[in-house]
Design a protein that fits this description.
604 residues, 52% helix, four-stranded antiparallel β-sheet, 23 helices, alpha+beta, five-stranded antiparallel β-sheet
Length: 604
Amino acid sequence: MATSVAGEGQQSLNWIISDHQTKKLTDLPTELLEHILCFPVLKHLDICNVSCCCKRLHDVCHGRGKVWGHQYKLRCYVLLWYFVGGLALVRSVSQPCVGQVLGDSFAEIESLGMPEHFCEDELLFILNSDKRKSLTLKYYAKKILYFLRQQNILRSLKTFLEQPAEQQSALEGAILVDQYCNPLADITLNNISAQLDEIAEKVKKMLRIKNPSHPSLRITQELQRQVVCALNSVLYEQLQYKGNEFDFYNPLNSYIHQVLLRRTGIPISLSVLYMTLARNLGVQVEPVNFPNHFLLRWCQKQRGSEDIYDYVYIDAFGKGKQLTAKECEYLIGHQVTADYYSAISTTEVLLRMVGNLLNIGKRGEGNEKSYQLLRDSLDLYLTINPDNVQYLLLQARLYFHLGIWPEKVLDILQHIQALDPSQHGAVGYLVQHTLEHIQHKKHPVTPEVKKRSVSEHLEVQYSVGLIMKHKRSGYNCVIYGWDPKCTMSQEWITTMRVHQLSNGANQPFYNVLVQDGTCRYAAQENLEPHSAPLEIGHPEVGRYFSEFADTHYFANEELQTRYPEDMVETLCTVQELYHRLTPGTGNQDQALATDQNNHRAMPM
């Protein structure tokens, strides 16, 4: 048989050599063509190009054949390396401390050159798999997808900013801001535009009812006034849009898709919608960067007039109310110069919009959500205005504080020094400590291992993975760590009135993930096992746990390494609390033990 195969191979080779001057590539046997097209140097784009040459090569490269099967295997291995690399990068900059944000140091990911659609498909497949399983894998998949989409949106924003000013749409820019801050949401320009077109149709319908002869888009002053009145009526009376006075600093007020969904926003987001609708209906309103209250202006006389009194000013936050220049000052309670009544560019609109988000991030409570908003808004602001020294320094300090991207911090500091040498004091301090951080990363500290069997840990009653209820505050949570005694500072102990507890600080304290998205440090005497365990909807659950099992969470490999004896204790506690009255206890014991062995062998 081997001789026969070898003989056939020699005949094929002789046929190629003897007829090489008359034969074409497409005359080669299918098996040989497939072998050639499976060479490692050929990428998926090369295969696409080859398959477009002729029908013969198109048939060889069919979707279920050997060639694409080979490409799929290659890309799977790259994605696996890519994904594991992403896990390692995230884990290398994360410390499981209370309230600390998990860093996203994905600097190396961009160099992998993976096709975006392929990565997204694979990551989305992971995220859409069984809801309760592979929580750690999903946690990191979500972070990688977040990063990849943001990089793509930043490229789109840079392309947008390179367009001539007159071609830039405030709506498109606002959508890019929205997409960057919400990269996992389904937000598209087409979808937003379609919603605005529906509103515009309602305005036209109202115009036709009130004035059947109205041309809708023909430019005359009186007809424009009718359009504005109809727009106000539809937007604020029929559709009930309004300014969000009661929750003004909610970042959702700045996201266009949320303004359309919730029908409320802040002056600038409502103004962008109002301006887009008005212009689509033939009324040329312009954005005005008025202090403390963004406005629009509409010229009542010759277009392009520089006289501020030739304009009517529209307050989109105040249900489209029309104001004179003097009334605008009453709105904010003080006088301003004529410069503040001027129209501004789309770039300036975006800077103000992002500036609002940046201020909200700075006002945050120091949790992951506020840090993420601050990071996102700084990225956007410095993409639009890359030489702002104040925000460059803030970005460097933020990354330094979070302990992420030390190499990028050094690049930012170098840029600051080139722009403003007077900042050498702050720059020098950060450079020194960032270099120390880089050295520290080269020699990572082994995390402390806590065993329940050690004598000083015998008072620890609860274990990681148990779902608990706080006796006083009533919140639901899951334990992801513990200390035999309170390890917080004396200042924290005093502020939190720990001394008022019956056992004070001299009792076990637990790191818990709370249902409301916060991380807390709770005393043992304040916690009790939940009578009816439920899944904890905390964004960091996947960082510590691999699976939710109805009554408890299974610690992932990393957490089991730190608390090697806890999962056995958790399973025993669960068995005692929730299964002792259930028929067939013996079978359940066996199932739980099997689950434990399986999870010990599971990778993160």
